[in-house]
Amino acid sequence: MIIYPRIILHQSKVNAVKRFHPWVFSGAIRQKDGDLIEGDVVDLYSEQGDYLATGHYSPGNIAVKILSFSPISDLKAWFMERIRQSYDLRVQLGLVYSPATTCYRLVNSEGDSLPGLIIDWYNGMAVTQFHSVGMYAMRGIIVEALEQIYGQRLRGVYDKSTMTLSRKIQFSGQDGYLLGEKMTGEVMENGHRFRVDWETGQKTGLFLDQRENRQLLSRYAPHQLVLNTFCYSGGFSVYAIQSGAKLVHSVDSSSRAIASTLENVELNSCRSTDHQVFTTDVFDFLKGCASDYTVMILDPPAFAKSLNVRHQAVMAYKRLNYLAFNKIQYGGIVFTFSCSQVVSVEQFEGAVMAGAIEAGREVRVLHHLNQPSDHPVSIFHPEGGYLKGLVLQVC
Q1: What separation in angstroms does the CA of 310 have from each of 209, 272, 317, 347?
Q2: So what's the architecture of 207-394 in CATH?
Q3: What is the pLDDT of residue 34?
Q4: CATH assignment of 75-188, given 3.30.70.20, 3.40.50.10810, 3.30.750.80, 2.50.20.10?
């Protein structure tokens, strides 16, 4: 059995680990074995010498991300089994063998008890993002596990960790293929086709966490005048067009995003919907557009990625929703979202309510939205529930 370096916690901090929270903060540490380096696998103990957990060490504020609350005797076998469990869950969810949906999240960090690891599956290509040095050091084992699980269905593994790691450390690595060679990707999502750019696109290439919310839009979009703001690759636009919307306007400040939207609309276009794109700032567009939309989608990028800008983010959500409420027709439907992890559900919904008050519109909630089941959240780590959304009727 491998013996890992020990970290002893202050007795007052032990209960948080016993409640299965996967993070140990630096202030909880009483004593460390020697000079630990970032990424070391460590065992956690109480002052009384009781084993608590095993995890990856980091010199930052989150000092240990816990892998297991039971001793790990064989690290490789442990990773193989944990990734297999994640795969089995996606089989149970009906995603792995679905011809209508060939893309999904295979591993969702703490939600799959693999903190610091994201793996998204794109019809044969597994795209990884490592958020910790310790998990990055395991990439060879992770690729081997994917080969073992998927066999010939796995055509490649692309690592896209430069941005996620370089924000935390002096990371000298580069994004690139851990297995296979450069290729383009096309996937199906609920019967809709999308071109995926995992090399230069945002996140891993497609915002998979909105899959079920895009499907929900299909119920509200037929015969409607739809505005899709922050459209990125046009996911909501494609669903609206395919469900029979009368008109769809897609807005994004990025010309690359607009080009991706046009490409995906073309891949799916079999209807006569009037679709137009606008490369401009969404806030400016909402100020100057006509007040005739009947369905709006507000899906902005994270307005806050740290606590010190949370207030500004909440104000931005208020302003965005205020502008939308001012421009939508009576009885219209608004899909509004926040993917800012540091903004709570209560804060987001409070900002939306403040926007409604300022706009002087009556607003009722039809749906509370969140991330789909292939983005699971540990009940002991509610911080993992980053995506928040509402479907509103505005009168």
Answers
A1: 22, 42, 11, 10
A2: 3-Layer(aba) Sandwich (3.40)
A3: 86
A4: 3.30.750.80
Q: What integer pLDDT is reported at residue 306 of this predicted model?
A: 74
Catalytic option among 103, 231, 289, 339: 339
Beta strands in the chain (DSSP E): 6-9, 23-25, 29-32, 41-45, 51-57, 62-68, 103-108, 117-122, 125-130, 156-159, 176-179, 185-189, 192-196, 225-229, 247-252, 274-279, 293-298, 328-338, 363-369, 388-394
The answer to whether residue 270 is catalytic is no
Domain positions in the chain are 6-68, 75-188, 207-394
* Sole residue written with tokens 């002096």: 170
Class of domain 6-68: mainly beta
Which residues of the chain are under the pLDDT cut of 50? none
pTM across the whole model: 0.95
Q: Which long-range contacts (CB under 8 A, 24 or more apart) does 222-228 make?
A: 224/294, 224/295, 224/333, 225/292, 225/293, 225/294, 225/295, 225/329, 226/293, 226/294, 226/295, 226/296, 226/297, 227/251, 227/289, 227/293, 227/295, 227/296, 227/297, 228/297, 228/299
Q: Which pLDDT belongs to residue 296?
A: 98
For residues 87 and 96, the answer to whether their CB atoms sit within 8 Å is: yes
Cα(138)–Cα(42) distance, integer angstroms: 14
Return d(Cα 84, Cα 334) in angstroms, integer: 39
- What are the C-alpha distances in Å from 111 to residues 105, 319, 348? 11, 32, 22
Residue 169 is predicted with a pLDDT of: 64
